[in-house]
Every structure is written in C-alpha cells, then in structure tokens.
Amino acid sequence: MPVNALYRDDFYLSTCEAVVTAVHEDGGIELDQTCFYATSGGQPGDSGELERADGTKIVLGQTKHGPSKDIVIHVPLENEPRPLVGETLVLHVDWQRRYRLMRMHTACHLLSVVCSYPITGAAVGEEESRVDFDMVETIDKDEVTAKLMELVGENHPVYLQWITDEDLAANPDIVKSKNVRPPIGLGRVSLVCIGENSSIDSQPCGGTHVSETQEVGQIHIAKIEKKGKENRRFRIRFGTPGDEA
C-alpha cells in the first residue's frame, strides 16, 4: 500500500513510529510511514533498525522501492525476526551513514554548478561519489576543488520547492541529467534549491540533502577519468587530497 514517506519533507528525521502493513515472503517489510530513504537516483537506501515493543531489534540491510515509487520495502538482514502485520515499531535510521550520504549528494549538486555540462550518470557513496558529464574539455581537478570549496564556504541555504508533474513536463530544460529520470509519478516533484531564491542552482531531485552548503565539509576531486570520447567521470571524496576523511 502507499507509504507516507516522511523523509521527503524532513531530511533530518532519523526516527519515527510506524505500523507494519505487510510482510513479504522474502522478509521485506512495508510500513504505513517511514523515515528510511529508499534507493533511488543514484543514492543508496538507508540501513538501520526497527525496534519492537519488547526492545528487540530487526536490523535492516537496505531500503528499496517496490513496483512503484509510493511503495517502500524495508529489507532485514538474513535470519532477522519477522514482525507481525499491525505491529507498531520504532524506526531508527543509521544516522551517521545517512548524514554522510546527504553531504555527498549535496556535493554532487555543487559539482554540477561548477561543471555546467549535461550529466550522463551519477552514484552517491559514503566515501566516494561520482558524476559523469557529457564533455570533451580538459579541466584541472584542483581548480574544480577550489570552486567547490568556495561554494561550501559561502554557506548557501539548501532547501526544497515543490512543483507539479505538469510543471516539470512543461519545463524539461531544468533537468540536467540526460539519463536519470526525475522523481515524477507522485503528483509533485521536489526541486533541490541552493542559494537565496535558487540563485546558485535548482534541480529536480528526490534525494536527501543537508540544509546549508557548509555542512558538506571538506571535499575534493580525487580523479577525473576519460570514459569515452565525450564523457568525463569526476570522483568526489571527503577530506583534502591525500587525507580522505
């Protein structure tokens, strides 16, 4: 059944109560609401724990979407106990991991500002993220790092605005990615905006992000790889070159 995905409106919500609505044969758990982000748009789904009334925990290995975006399935690790339909659980997101992914995902958006080329692929990771651009130019990774850190240091606000699916269809040019589908199908689309009045950037995205660029922290471009005649892969890491955080 459709889930109330609380993370869509509050990226910092790491715990909530929820009622079990379904338990699949493979152990996947559906809930009436969740603060667990489901794998989408290059960002991994959350891990964490579901706490039962007696204090025992069901440890989750991943969170993913079902057949549609309004279904979220919480996947326990092997041999974890199964809850009962109708049971109330307390959800606990692995916050340290989620927060690193939030910082990384926001860093990817900043990179798309510094390198204003069409995006051909992206993957957000805890230690390293990558963004692929449709470009042939040669660019210096230290220069890109300096521009990224300038945006981080300026501490621009990061926030959501909502538009309808129809608004997005009428303005397709706001999508930077060439092959990642914007988060449509729910009636409304989230725009991740950076800077006052979107002065730095505005991009359709269903991922989780920090609330101001300073939270990204120290990042750098570790490597720029040539992946085809017109494709360059940028690898973002935390910390300074040679000193990853």
Account of the protein in words:
The mean pLDDT is 91. This protein has three helices and 15 strands. Strands 3-2-8-5-6-7 form a six-stranded antiparallel sheet, with no helix packed on it. Strands 9-10-15-14 form a four-stranded antiparallel sheet, with helices on one face. It starts with a strand and ends in a 7-residue tail after the last strand. The chain has helices at 95-114, 141-153, 165-170, and strands at residues 4-5, 15-23, 29-31, 33-34, 48-51, 57-65, 72-76, 88-93, 119-123, 128-133, 158-164, 188-194, 201-204, 219-226, 232-238. Helix 1 crosses helix 2. The chain has 245 residues and is of the alpha+beta class. It holds the Pfam family tRNA-synt_2c. It comes from Rhizobium leguminosarum bv. trifolii (strain WSM2304). GO terms for molecular function: aminoacyl-tRNA deacylase activity; aminoacyl-tRNA ligase activity; metal ion binding. One of its GO terms (cellular component) is cytoplasm. This is Alanine--tRNA ligase.
